[in-house]
């Protein structure tokens, strides 16, 4: 599966990586199936199981307690983030779609995670502007509309604790960001975003070839 979102990888290597990563449990497997039935072609928006495992592990490893997700869809990445939270940890999810997040909420309930996840429906930029000053966020996962990535980055940065993390999905954009002949609009948006992060001296960053590219950014 992971090779589907990583066309820049040799397909055999992609399958090997996926086969040697802890597989989804029943909760995640059911969500994958229901998302495919409900969303059809749009199910491709769901993160891949290997990326999900990474999100759980990075949340655990960073001891994050206050986590934000921008772009929830049917809730797969939210389950992975929420599972990495320690006691008292909270995940706040932002998404514009009642339809997709109603599926998410049902699966969070089944996963026993509803008490630690809060969902805010509406354009994420507006909701983020309403956050209290100094929200002390430990980890942010950005996986929503690409043209607003820079806006989300700018809006969460003041709330991020020193040492806090931002994870940004789709930063390789199918490998197209590295193709000088590709001038498509989203490719250009992702290139500009990646350049901006690279030149931001408030952070240290690493681009990981997980799924469609995941950038891990640490605020100094
Ligand atoms: C790629 S999907 C997220 C996938 C999700 N992380 C998962 O694991 O399944 C992108 C989501 O961003 C949401 N979205 C798009 N524009 C948005 C906006 N302006 N504000 C908030 N959410 C938005 C869409 O409704 C969609 O659910």
UniProtKB/TrEMBL annotation:
The keyword Coiled coil does not apply. The keyword Methyltransferase applies. SUPFAM superfamilies: S-adenosyl-L-methionine-dependent methyltransferases. One of its GO terms (biological process) is methylation. GO terms for molecular function: O-methyltransferase activity; S-adenosylmethionine-dependent methyltransferase activity. Keywords: Methyltransferase, S-adenosyl-L-methionine, Transferase. InterPro entries: Cation-dep_OMT, SAM-dependent_MTases_sf, SAM_O-MeTrfase. It comes from the Bacteria. This is Caffeoyl-CoA O-methyltransferase. It comes from Sinosporangium album.
């Amino acid at each position: 599966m992971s090779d589907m979102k990583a066309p820049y990888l040799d397909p055999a290597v992609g399958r090997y990586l996926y086969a040697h990563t802890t597989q989804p449990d029943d909760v995640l497997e059911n969500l994958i199936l229901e998302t495919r039935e409900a969303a059809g072609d749009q199910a491709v928006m769901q993160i891949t199981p290997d990326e999900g495992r990474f999100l759980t592990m990075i949340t655990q490893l960073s001891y994050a307690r206050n986590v934000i997700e921008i772009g929830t869809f049917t809730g797969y990445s939210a389950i992975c983030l929420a599972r990495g939270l320690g006691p008292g940890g909270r995940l706040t999810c932002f998404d514009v779609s009642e339809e997709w997040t109603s599926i998410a909420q049902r699966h969070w309930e089944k996963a026993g995670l509803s008490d630690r996840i809060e969902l805010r429906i509406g354009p994420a930029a507006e909701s983020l502007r309403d956050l209290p000053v100094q929200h002390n966020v430990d980890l942010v996962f950005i996986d929503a509309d690409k043209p607003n990535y820079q806006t989300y980055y700018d809006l969460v940065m003041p709330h991020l604790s020193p040492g806090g993390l931002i994870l940004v999905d789709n930063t390789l954009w199918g490998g197209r960001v590295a193709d000088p002949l590709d001038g498509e609009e989203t490719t250009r948006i992702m290139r500009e975003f990646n350049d901006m992060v690279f030149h931001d001296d408030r952070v240290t960053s690493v681009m990981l070839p997980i799924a469609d590219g995941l950038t891990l950014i640490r605020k100094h």
